[in-house]
Structures are given as C-alpha cells and as structure tokens.
Amino acid sequence: MTPLEDKVRRAFEDKADQVPADAMPPLRLPARRRRFLSLAYGGGQRMGASARRGWLAAAASAVLVVTVIAGAVAVSRVMPGSQRPGHGPGAVATSNQAAAWVAAQVSRSAVVSCNPVMCQTLQAYGLPASDLLVLRPGGTGPQKSQVIVATATVRREFGGRLAAFYAPAVIASFGSGSTRIDIRQIAPAGPAAYRSALRVDVEQRKTVESTLANSLQIVAPPRARRQLLAGQVDARLATLVEGMATELPMPVDIVAFGDMGPGVSPGIPLRSVTLAADTADLRSLLTIVRSEKGSYRPAHTEITRSGGRSVLVIQFDAPSPLGLFDPPRHKGT
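Request: output the structure for the sequence above.
Response:
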C-alpha cells in the first residue's frame, strides 16, 4: 500500500464511523415468485370429417376474419384514439428504456415491484426473479419493495394512492402519455416523512457541499461548482470527494457530475462523478474506492479515456439514502 492510499483510506474510515446504523442500504427482502399463465391453443380438423365440411369450415373462418378486420378498420376510422394504451412499438421501446435504466442504476439490494409484463422485461435485462415483486390486480401492494416501476397498468391499478401513499418520488421517467413509465422510490414511513427527510437532507447537502465548491483543493468547471453549491450531489459521493480533497497532496480534478435520471422529482441527487488525474493516481484512488463497504461502496468504478485523458468514473446506485450527513447521535439524547 502506498502512502497516498494509506492516508486516503484512513480519511474514508473516519467518515464511515460517523454513518448511523440505519443509513445502511436495505437488505434484500424476499420477493414472491412469479407465476406465468400460459394459453393453450388446441383443436384442428376432426378425424373422419368430409372434405366438403372442411372446405366449408375454412370458408366460414375466412369470411369471419374478413368481417372482423373490416369492423376493426371501420371503428378505427371513427375513433382514431381507440388503440389500447401500452401497446405498439413506442410502448415496447419505452419499456426497454426503463428496464435498461433499472438494470444499470437501481441497487441490487433493492426489491423492485412491477406488473407481470414489466417484470418479464426486467428479467430479460438481467434482474433475477428473486429481486422482483409481481403486482397483480387485487393483490398486495408494493410496500415490501424499495422501487416500483409504474407503468400505465400500475397507475390504473393504484390510482392516486401511488404517489399519495406508496411512492412520492420519481427517480427516473421514460416516454409520455399512456406509454409513460415512472421509476418511483417507495417511502416505507409514508410520503410525509419522506418529504420531511428529503428537505433536511437537501439543506445538509448544501452546507457540506458548499464548502467543497469553495475549496482550493477542488478543481471543477462552473457547472459542477454550482451543483455543489445547490446541494445536488449525492451525500455518499460528496463524502468521497471530501476525503480526497482533505488528504490528497494535489487538488481533486472534477470533470463532471452525472447520473440523474430523466424527469426526476426535485431534490433527487446526482450519483456519479468523473475525475481526471495521472493514470497512477487514478489507480491508487480506484483501489481505495473499491475497498469501501456499506453505503460508501460505489456500484460502478472504472478508469477510462475521455477527451484524450484518463478519467475515473465513480457511480453510486439508486435510490439515494437520506440522512448520511446527520450529526452522530449521543446516548441519552
């Protein structure tokens, strides 16, 4: 271990000791197993039927098909908006976008609730069935999950209770109209408690991150400094950057913050940062960051090339925990 690694590791460990026990990511909860219902198509020509009867049956089927098609065309001309919502190429593309985002961004310790069709799409993108809570009409709600994929089907099922009772915050949104899919964060203690905790968290982020924005040990473009001043950076990420700025012999070169989902609710923070430095320094930082545990262990770290230079990408998963900047609670208080 190099002296640089040792210094930064000690700084991170000091920070980790200040994290309250209830700030750890939630444990994976048991999800109900998915049960697929299949349709069996049987029939066929009855043995011993005459050729004429078979011809008449085929002709009658053809007439029926033509009649149904003609009726459908007539209805569509009278009612241009009569196509069922949630179907068609646009809906499929939106489902794929939402599933890809969940697979890449949501914590693997989180249970994701979804309707059967969306759950199947999520499985196709790599989420195991044990991480999915399948929502069925008249069944239990999404309380035992941390994230809900709110398709049009889910919104119809839960109505106003979805935002008012279960999941007040949107952490990503895809599509529009009847094909819109919102990725929402479940509030286990209820929306009122969540909104109160979020307001406190944003103010605490502003206090801590404004110090980083004005630090001489931080090199950052104007946009990144404004994001720090506004408290828009995830507390886990800000803590790592603070440790680097405090202990490194050279300034921390921030290229950009990122990974905010599209269409998010106010207060949802940025969960990734791109840092620039010499390759050797980036490798030392990568080793340290990958050794972190609990809330401060990133979901993804990678040294890559951007703009002709080496950069380190650090990304935390969603949803972001609240209250990591709370002062330590002393016994008897």
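Confidence is low (pLDDT under 50) at residues 19-86, 329-333.
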